[in-house]
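This is your field. Have a critical look at both lines of this record:
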Amino acid sequence: MLFSIFALTVSYLKNKIMEYKARFITEDIKLSSYEDKFFKSDITFDQHMLVWFLSGETKIVQGDATYFFGKGDIFLIPRNQLATIINYPKDGKPHKTVVMHLSVERLRDFYSNKHVKPKPQNSPKIFRFSNHPLLESCLASLIPYFDMKDIPKDIASIKITEAISILRVLDKEIDNVLANFEEPGKINLVDYMEKNFMFNLPLEKFGYLTGRSLTTFKRDFKKAFSTTPQRWLTQKRLELAHYQLTEKKKKPLDVCYEVGFENLSHFSFAFKKQFGFAPSHLVSD
């Protein structure tokens, strides 16, 4: 998982208390480790995140896709994208990753002398670069620095520049994401919420991602849906949960977190209040 110390906007949910460890080269590059069995967060990233898996597994759920990553995988998550991230240890080893933040400021500097005109991207995908030798070599070269006390002053800048340069070689379309510095503009509220209601984020963040202040978001939401955001979100999540349990035969614990509830007890209470029986009632023996 990728944490608030980097000014990420994070609304996080914990199923168990985890032992979290992190070592830093700078605040833009860290070695992250989770030792327990499970960690889940609903988040948006304020910066692009380049992640290299050393051990463990991650499931990333977005509105239109689900991704699975494990040992050796490398991927880039674009900024301002909603995602549910579920981390697991595997094979007795912790969930451990090297994480590099590609901030807007650093990317502006990188592209300042390049003639790049990015094309608009409505919903940038997660980019996967698994087992690529150039990129893996770049990220692997960071490992010794996490144990050093006297780190060369410019090493982070050098390594981030190297990583960006490699990414541009691997994917010719990535400039459309990395060189796009615009903030979210006002978009269709109904379409956006119908696609992203399962993410448990503050209303302020939903407002920002749809190009609205909190006040304007609430006003436009009431006009569009004739109810409050809280009531509508709960109803939509329960409807999706019922479908997942009855049609997809998923377990209540998995459904609980995938549709946006904070914990299993809260989900079970709301589900029983809505449907008259607990979600476990729909589980086949």
Observations:
- The domain at 189-282 is CATH 1.10.10.60 (Arc Repressor Mutant, subunit A).
- DSSP finds ten helices and eleven strands in the chain.
